[in-house]
Amino acid sequence: MILHAGQVALGDRLPTLVKPPITRTTLAYFCGASNDHNPLHVDPDVARAAGMEDVFAHGMLNMAYLGQLLTGWVDQSCLRGFEVKFGAIVRLGEQLVCNGEVVDKQLRDGGCRILIRLLATNQAGEVKLTGEAVVELPLAEPAQTTGS
To answer: What is the CATH number of the domain that holds 17?
Structure first.
């Protein structure tokens, strides 16, 4: 079911998405899936040589979690824009808590554009990413057809 404009109001919050703690295994899987094999994310010796205390999550993994928040709320085909700003490193053991809030709603071109403010924090409430997304929703629920 695709949401329609009448089901969304200013101030609505997307259902919170809480991800499991970041592990070395998560980072290794993401390296393979994304083809991003930067050793800062998987090799503790390289990370320490660069001044870090240990490996840390890829920024794009964190962004993907915010994307998952969005596509858990609205069909991917409705997404028109998605951008983030990286605020702080996500370390091993941290959990990302992803939230979104509807901050603008405008009718245009037979549809409705919704602006969503995004926020990802760790379990302690430290801001890790902020961003925005734009989704386009139909004005009304599509008509149901019945077979004969």
So the answer is: 3.10.129.10
